[in-house]
């Protein structure tokens, strides 16, 4: 999906949501090394190229902040896909509410990824 958006859109954004800051850091490193584009990161502790990226890696709460910010509507309208990583962790650490809000707020396709089903 990331490759598709980068190829087909000159300004489209893919948002990759991970449930923890540690996974955000890991995915940021992996995506940065694989794609020749600006990758942003947004957690409670760290903010890098959030508004100037083509791929944003974040935790659910920080993406909700962007969606609820009236000054970020241009950026939000550029989001082509939201990828929810480790979706089986959705109910852990009280994050379910953030995921629910994102599903309600997003106007783009949302894809859930999990290596664990149960």
Automatic annotation (TrEMBL):
Protein name: Helicase ATP-binding domain-containing protein
UniProt cross-references to Pfam families, sorted A to Z: DEAD (PF00270)
InterPro entries per the UniProt record, alphabetical: DEAD/DEAH_box_helicase_dom (IPR011545), Helicase_ATP-bd (IPR014001), P-loop_NTPase (IPR027417), SKI2_subfamily_helicases (IPR052431)
SUPFAM superfamilies the record matches: P-loop containing nucleoside triphosphate hydrolases (SSF52540)
GO cellular component: cytoplasm
Gene3D superfamilies: P-loop containing nucleotide triphosphate hydrolases
Keyword Cell membrane: no
MF GO annotations: ATP binding; helicase activity; hydrolase activity; nucleic acid binding
Keywords: ATP-binding, Helicase, Hydrolase, Nucleotide-binding
Domain Helicase ATP-binding, residue spans: 1-118
